[in-house]
Amino acid sequence: MTLPLFGTAALCRGLEQQARSVVRLRTLDAESPKAETDFIIVRTDDDLKQAVLNGDESIFAIDDGRGRFLSADRMPRRTIAVSAQFSYLDEGDIIGVHAPSGKFRTLYRHNSRHNSFLVTERCNNYCLMCSQPPKDIDDRWILNEIRESLPLLDKETRTLTFTGGEPLSDWAGFISILSECRDQLPKTAIQVLTNGRAFAKSEIVDAWRKVNHPSLIAAIPVYAAVDHVHDYVVQAKGAFDETILGILKLKDRGQRVEVRVVLHAQTAPIIAETCRWLARNLSFVDHVALMGLENTGFAIANEAQLWIDPIDYQAALAEAVEVLVAANVNVSVYNLQRCVLAPSVWPYAVQSISDWKNAFIAECQSCTEKTRCAGFFSSGRPRRSRAIGPIG
After folding, report:
1. What DSSP designation does 323 have?
2. What is the dihedral of CA 10, 13, 16, 20, to 10 degrees?
3. Measured CA distances, 199 to 24, 91, 143, 194 (Å)
4. Which residues of 194-214 are buried (b: 16+ CB within 10 A; e: fewer)?
5. Which helix (H) or strand (E) holds 108?
6. At what angle do helices 141-149 and 171-184 cross, to 10 degrees?
7. In the 8-state DSSP scheme, what is residue 200?
8. pLDDT per residue as tens digits for the range 145-203
9. Helix, strand, or coil (residue 1)
């Protein structure tokens, strides 16, 4: 099952001073001092009684389905009450709340290694397989929400991803966020999923360089070795030239870059040729990720153009990996099950699917490679290869 990351609170009061608030969740036994943003998690009547005895005036009630926390009269001054499907929320998690509507989103989960912030839904690409279809809206309020969230994150957070849309749509505002990450999360690896076109402008790439975060990387898609194929996939004429120029400018300034290739019917059949081009022309990038398709968003609408059984490009993918390895390019394969990969690719295949939408099926239970396998996306409209089956 896909973990629900957003919903509407059954009760939301005491947050009326501003339309949007960022809330950090704490348990009753939390030892560190409680900040104004902190709400105490209560799951039972005993929890509620203890919170009241403790003088806690900010409560995050997770109901068990009986509606026992929905009476405003018995709840403290500031209360958010949600249904049992959000019972996964726990100590150190952070949510964003829109008080007028009661709508909320999970922004950060303390115990997850797959935390990401959506920066914007705006984008200057219109990719055939986009999992977050772009919208032409003013959503700059999201940057403020992220800015409020950063001080609340665990300083030991290992990785954090920024995604979109195109995060550099409001490049000055977003780069200021990266500067705050440098100051507040210097030990956290920061990854930005960007189409890279903004870096064709020296002003932007210079501002990025000045951030000087010790573990910042731009993850940029290159879908083919020829411009017209890449431009078709992203539905933007001239995008290939801007993207490659952006990568060159980043590397010229000593910045870390990952090249990503999503594998589908437009890109998978030519993946060996694409990787030969990458090995010849962009061998200095820090990492190349070859990624199985998540069948969601625009990928569902364009399924006829995009779906290809991974077993049908197994040999091409193995050749592509071999080419990159021979050129000393760091390469990984994401989102693909081990049973559809050639054994030579297994050392490069990683468990990459975010935990909130990662699943396995019945055929996987007896597989000897399950603990090392990426598994499946539970989001969207999952498609499975005809070659899926247990190994060993």
Report:
1. H
2. -50
3. 34, 38, 20, 10
4. bbbbbbbbeebbebbeebebe
5. strand 103-108
6. 0
7. G
8. 999 999 999 999 999 999 999 999 999 999 999 999 999 999 999 999 999 999 999 99
9. coil
Which pTM was predicted? Answer: 0.95
Give the model confidence (pLDDT) of 62-77 as tens digits: 987 777 777 767 788 8
* Backbone φ, ψ for residue 360 (5° rounding): -125, 160
At 17, give phi and psi (nearest 5°).
-65, -25
Please give the C-alpha separations between residue 71 and each of 4, 11, 80, in angstroms, as whole numbers.
24, 8, 11
Phi–psi pair at 317, nearest 5 degrees: -65, -40
342 to 30, 315, 325: CA distances (angstroms): 48, 7, 15
Is residue 219 within 8 A of residue 191, CB to CB? The reply is: yes
Q: Which of 318, 220, 222, 303 is nearest to 264 (CA)?
A: 303
Single-letter amino acid, residue 10: A
Which SS3 state, helix, strand or coil, does residue 227 take? helix
CA separation for the pair 375, 243 (Å, rounded):
31
How crowded is residue 113: how many other Cβ atoms within 10 Å of its Cβ? 10
